[in-house]
Amino acid sequence: MLTFEALSKTFSEFIGTYSFPSEPKQLYDPVRYIMSLGGKRIRPLLALAAYNIYHDNVEKANHAAMTVEVFHNFSLLHDDIMDNAFKRRGKDAVHIKYDENSAILSGDVMMIWSYKLLEDYTANIVDIYKVFTKTSIEVCEGQRMDMDFETREEVSILEYIEMITLKTSVLLGAALKMGALVADASKQDQSHLYEFGKNVGIAFQIQDDVLDTYGDEATFGKRIGGDILQKKKTFLYLKSLELLSESQVERLKSLFALDYTIVNEATHIEEVRNLYNKAFVNVHADETKLVYQQLAFSHLDAISVNKEKTEILRSFAEKLLNRKV
Amino acid sequence: MLTFEALSKTFSEFIGTYSFPSEPKQLYDPVRYIMSLGGKRIRPLLALAAYNIYHDNVEKANHAAMTVEVFHNFSLLHDDIMDNAFKRRGKDAVHIKYDENSAILSGDVMMIWSYKLLEDYTANIVDIYKVFTKTSIEVCEGQRMDMDFETREEVSILEYIEMITLKTSVLLGAALKMGALVADASKQDQSHLYEFGKNVGIAFQIQDDVLDTYGDEATFGKRIGGDILQKKKTFLYLKSLELLSESQVERLKSLFALDYTIVNEATHIEEVRNLYNKAFVNVHADETKLVYQQLAFSHLDAISVNKEKTEILRSFAEKLLNRKV
User: Fold this and answer.
1) Computed over its alpha carbons, how large is the radius of gyration of chain A?
2) Shortest Cα distance, chain A CAs vs residue B121, angstroms
3) pTM across the whole model
4) CA distances from B234 to A310, B225, B286 (A)
5) B104 touches chain A (CB under 8 A)
6) Does A76 touch chain B (CB under 8 A)?
7) By the number of CB atoms within 10 A of the CB, which of A173, A241, A273, B79 ranks highest?
8) How confident is the model at residue A323 (pLDDT cuts 50, 70, 90)?
9) Could you tell me if A160 and A235 are in contact, meaning their C-beta atoms sit under 8 angstroms apart?
């Protein structure tokens, strides 16, 4: 069993030597650029860690790990165009550094490249393609739901959970399942690893919603209140609508109306947060997060190997979810 | 052996009953829309015809045929955004009928869906994925070269041929090869069918360049002179640069300069066409087309089956290339 740091080093070395074609330069330069911006590399590490439960030669899972990382960066690249986001990981987004057409086309080739990375696997190859295809389609569906929610009046908490599940969580599950498939793990283990990753992802996203409003700017790394300023229908917003009085709901809705102009950002964030506080919505969010977190760990515990073999995934998830359970 | 009409009917019936998911509606409506616009369905018919050389139950190749058709429409959809084209097959382009974000995201899901369509094949599945992935990457590379040529001073005829090969011709080859792979044809036959399709594609594109300038508006279906007005570096333009005198080349280049403003469209087309005529460039284009056409048919002749089995592909290509050889 490798440590988390050793897995991280394995993938760093792989990605450091992996090269995309040199030509056409204007097609692959944006690919190299977004891949060089770094990030936490959570998904590839999950793939390697899942493989490492069963075998030592983790290098064998590098290509599957790279598939999910390239796909993830493709989705960020196209999302940044759609969201009109200027920055990605503190640097210019691809459509800003290059141009929008380059961002569309280089994103397309990344999507296809993520399939190419799989083509040298032989064992379970059909199942590997299937889980990757299913997941990729779901990520698009989740992004569409997210876009649709912006202009929709009524969104239920259940719909919200479905959206974040598709948009962000299934890819964590797929990364683990693909690692397990490369390792030729049992169907049961594949499924438990998938559910573990998916539920960690849901818990993580709910936590992200909380931190965006209640976090510490220094450690969160993003501006606090960003979701509120963007009028995003987060867990906090949707749950508050369920819990507040009629007049409070009316006020909250008016503050999130698409045609409402925010005059003073700090005051606006403060007023929304006060309404959230009245609903004790962060407590509800923490509880919901815990439900998914516990579900995740119950799937991890159900895997048919010695507990120590899954310890690294357990501690990684705890670190991600920033809480010891 | 089925007739061309019978193959066409087979695929029409398949596509008529094939359904994309109903939800999210705003993700799949644009997919249904572009798929409903029709078109000649050349690529899926090539896949079915290749399969039919070896087996009668052509329905088995429907999914592979659909893969190339969905991929082709994905590429049109994203190209229309990049080219800022308003119309597609006489109707609003997807990014006009819906919006640009919808066009990006629905294009993405079509790209992935084209992989999904392959997942029930078992024989040669790895090779099917490989040729499709390789081809899809090449189509992106060809589109990038096409975009790069717009702003590049010097483009050679060879580079132009490479661009059209990647952008449009390899997909015809891949359609045939995928049909052959589903049919479990020999490696040699797969390769001959691929080369046949690729070279027909190159010949077809050169013919398309000629028709765009010299065709009959009624039968060509597009406005004559469109390439000239768009200052496209077509075969005619590039070959003229090789053949004209220094002063004529200078004039032609100035008419295609990006900062040159076209005052009168008809006069402009006429002046460019006169320069093309002085180079007898349509004769050169016809000769080059014939080279690729003959290369295509030599590969078709090399297939290890009775001539009658490939007759339908021969007559289909002749029809496409609008000439009896």
Assistant:
1) 20
2) 9
3) 0.95
4) 60, 12, 14
5) yes
6) no
7) A173
8) low
9) yes
Position A162 in a domain: yes
Task: List the domain range (segments joined by +) for residue B235.
Answer: 186-308
Q: Report yes or no for ipTM above 0.90.
A: yes
**Chain B contact for A125, CB < 8 A?**
yes
Instruction: Show residues of chain B in contact with A112, CB under 8 Å.
Output: 111, 133, 136-137, 140
Same domain, yes or no: B117 and B255: no
Interface A-B: count of C-beta contacts within 8 A: 100
Over the range B161-192, which residues count as b (16 or more CB within 10 Å of their CB) and which as e?
Answer: bebbbbbbbbbbbbbbbbbbbbbebeeebbbb
Tell me whether B129 touches chain A (CB under 8 Å). Answer: yes
Q: Which of B185, B202, B222 is the last residue of a domain?
A: B185
Q: pLDDT for A291-320, tens place per residue?
A: 999 999 999 999 999 999 999 999 999 999
Task: Please tell me the total count of domains within chain A.
Answer: 1
Distances (CA, A) of A117 to A66, B115, B188: 7, 14, 26
Q: Which of B78, B147, B148 sits opposite A108 (nearest CB)?
A: B78
Return all residues near A213 (Cβ < 8 A) that are at least 6 apart: A224, A225, A227, A228, A234, A236, A272, A273, A276, A282
Query: Looking at chain A, which residue has its C-alpha nearest residue B121?
Result: A126
Confidence of residue B324 (pLDDT cuts 50, 70, 90): very low
CB atoms within 10 A of CB B215: 17
- Please report, as a single letter, which amino acid is at residue B43: R
